[in-house]
Amino acid sequence: MLGLMQSQPLLISSLIEFADRHHGDAEIVSRRVEGDIHRYTYKDLAARARRLANALDGMGLQFSDRVATLAWNGYRHMEMYFGVSGSGRVLHTINPRLHPDQIAWIANHAEDQVLCFDLTFLPLVQAVHAKCPTVKKWVALCDADRLPADSGIPGLTSYEDWIGAHSPDYAWPEFDENSASSMCYTSGTTGNPKAALYSHRSTTLHAYAAALPDVMCLSARDSVLPVVPMFHVNAWGIPYSAALTGCKLVFPGPAMDGKSIYELIEAEKVSYAAGVPTVWQMMLGHMKPAGLKFSTLKRTVIGGSACPPAMIHAFKEDYGVEVLHAWGMTEMSPLGTLCTLKNKHLALPKEEQMKVLLKQGRAIYGVDMKIVGADGEELPWDGKTYGDLLVKGPWIVDSYFKGEGGHPLVKDAQGRGWFPTGDVATIDADGFMQITDRSKDVIKSGGEWISSIDIENIAMAHPAIAMAACVGMPHPKWDERPIVAVVRRPGAEVTREELLAFFEGKIAKWQIPDDVVFVEAIPLGATGKMLKTKLREQLKDYKLPGL
Ligand code: ADP
User: AMP-dependent synthetase/ligase domain spans which residues (predicted)?
Assistant: First the structure.
C-alpha cells in the first residue's frame, strides 16, 4: 500500500519560489567587483533568476546542458544557482584559482555551453577561450557600460544586457528530482579532476539538513556571510539553505582579505559566517593587533581542513564566537559531520568540552559513516582505534561524471555501497568522528601511525607560529619520521629547539617531529588548503638530522 500524500519532486526551483513568496523582503547584500555594495531582496533575486531562465530557453539550451561560472560570491552568481538549475540545466561552478590549462580541461570535459565570468577573470578567459570549443556564449557578469570593448572574446555579452532583454515571467518546469542540477570538480591532487554531479533531490535534502539546529542552525533571524566561495562545493550549500530559511545573505565578492571581511561583518550585522581555517587566520591576524572585536557575530562554521584548536580557542575566549567544526568533501555535497555538544557534555568542565569540540563531529541525519581496517571489517567506536572512513547517504556520490575513476563504492556484506573518503579517522562511543589524516598524508614510523594534524595543531598553538604543515620524511630505520614546516608570525621569534621542546608532554616522545623547517609560506591549493604534495617537492633535497 502506498501513502496518500502529494507527490511533488524536490526541485531547486521550489527553494527560490518559497523564498520569493515567504521571505520576499529579506535582504541580499553583495560587495561587487566594482567595489561598491549592492542590495536587493529575495523577490528581486527570484525575478532575475526567471529572466535568466528565459534567456537560457531563448538560446535553445537543452535540458541538462551545462552552464559554467568563474565568479566570486555575489548576487548574480546566486541568480545563476537558481536560474540555471531551476530551468533544468546544470550549473558548473569552476574554481578560478586552478591553472588555466586545468580550467580549459574541465570546461571541455563538462562540455560547457555558456560560461559566465566576473571581470576579475577577464585575462583568464582571454587565455582559455580559444581552447573551449563547446562554449557557445561568453557572458561577463557586469553592467552593459562595463563591458570591455576589445576583449577579443567572440560575442561577449554583458549579463545585464542578456537577461534584461527577457521577461521575468516564467513557470519553472517540473521534472524528475533525480535530474542533475549542478556539478563540481574535485581538485585533482591525484590525476585528472573528477566531477561530482549533484541532483535536485540531493541538493534539496542537503539544504534541509544543513539548516538543522545541530548543523548550521540557520534561521530567518540570521545575517549569514558565506566566505567559503560559491565555487567550493556550492559554498557548502549555504545559498540553498538560505533560500529555505529566508536568512539575510551577505556576499564578500572579490574582497577576501581580513580587513574587508571584518568590515563587512560589522557593517551588515553578520551573526553567522562560514569559511576555511586560512581565511579566519587572516581575519584574526588583522583584528588582534588593532584590538578589534565583533559586535554581532555569534557563530562560525570552519571546515575544509582541520581547524586548529588555537583558533577555536581564540574565537571563543577572545571574541565570544562559537566555532562549529565541520567535515565534508566535494563528493558529499559537502556536509558529513558537524561538531556540536550533546546534552551529556553540558555539565563537563570547559577543558573537557573543548576536547569534544576539537573533533570533526557527529554525522548529520542523511549521512551514515563507519571506520574499517585493511580487511574491510568494521572497527570499534572507542575514540582510539583508527581506520579508513567510509560514508553513505542520499547526497553522497555513487559515481563520477562520465564514469571517471570507475566505481568508487565499496560493497558491504548486505551489498550496500559505501564511499571511501580517503580519510583516516576514529569514532568515539558518542559517535564523534575525528580525522587523523588524509590516508596519503599519514606518517608511518616504525609500524605505527603518527597524525600530521596533531603535530600541526600543537605547533600552531605556539604564540610565534602562524601556520604549520607536518610531512613524513624517508628514514632507513623507521620508514618515515615527521618534520614540521612552520611560518613564523610577523616579528615573532622562536628557535628550532624551543619549538621542539614545546611538543614535550603534549604527545608521546616518539611522535615528536625530528626537525623544524622555517619557511616563508606554506603552499596553498585552490581552495585554501595546504598543498602537502607541493611542500614535499620543495623539500625534496631535505635530509633528516643525523642521516
Ligand atoms: P579535495 O578533496 O578536492 O581537496 P574537498 O573540499 O572535497 O576537496 O576536500 C575534502 C577533504 O578535506 C576531506 O576528505 C578531508 O581530508 C579534508 N577535510 C575537510 N574538512 C576537514 C576537517 N574539518 N578536518 C580535517 N580535514 C578536513
Answer: 19-401
Distance 416 CA to ligand 1 centre (A): 24
Q: Which residue's alpha carbon is at the smallest distance from atom 17 of ligand 1?
A: 305
Cell of 100: 588555466
Identical topology for domains 12-323 and 448-538 = no
Pocket test for ligand 1, best of 192, 215, 301, 329 (most atoms within 8 A of CB): 329
What percentage of residues in the chain have a pLDDT greater than 70?
A: 99
Cell of 43: 523577490
Q: How are the residues of the chain apportioned to helix, strand and coil, as percentages rounded to the nearest 5?
A: 30, 25, 40
Give residues (CB < 6 A) around ligand 1.
Answer: 186-187, 233, 303-306, 325-330, 360, 421-423, 435, 438, 527, 529
Specify the ligand 1 atom closest to the Cα of 332. 7
Nearest CA to ligand 1 atom 19: 304
Asked whether the predicted pLDDT for residue 528 surpasses 80, the reply is no
Candidate CATH numbers 3.40.50.12780, 1.10.10.10, 1.10.3720.10, 3.40.50.300; the one for domain 12-323: 3.40.50.12780
Confidence of residue 484 (pLDDT cuts 50, 70, 90): very high
* DSSP line for 177-241: TTSEEEEEE---SSSS--EEEEEHHHHHHHHHHHHSTTTT---TT-EEEE-S-TTSHHHHTHHHH
Report domain extents, the chain.
12-323, 448-538
Instruction: Extract the C-alpha cell encoding 334.
Output: 559537502
User: Does the domain spanning 448-538 belong to CATH 3.40.830.10?
Assistant: no
Report the separation in Å between the CA atom of 479 and the middle of ligand 1, taken as the mean of its atom positions: 26
Give the mutation target among 198, 305, 331, 532 for probing the ligand 1 site: most ligand atoms within 8 A of CB.
305
The pLDDT tens digits for 310-330 are 999 999 999 999 999 999 999
* CA distance from start to end of the chain: 73
Residues classed as catalytic: 186, 331, 444, 449
Q: How confident is the model at residue 447 (pLDDT cuts 50, 70, 90)?
A: confident
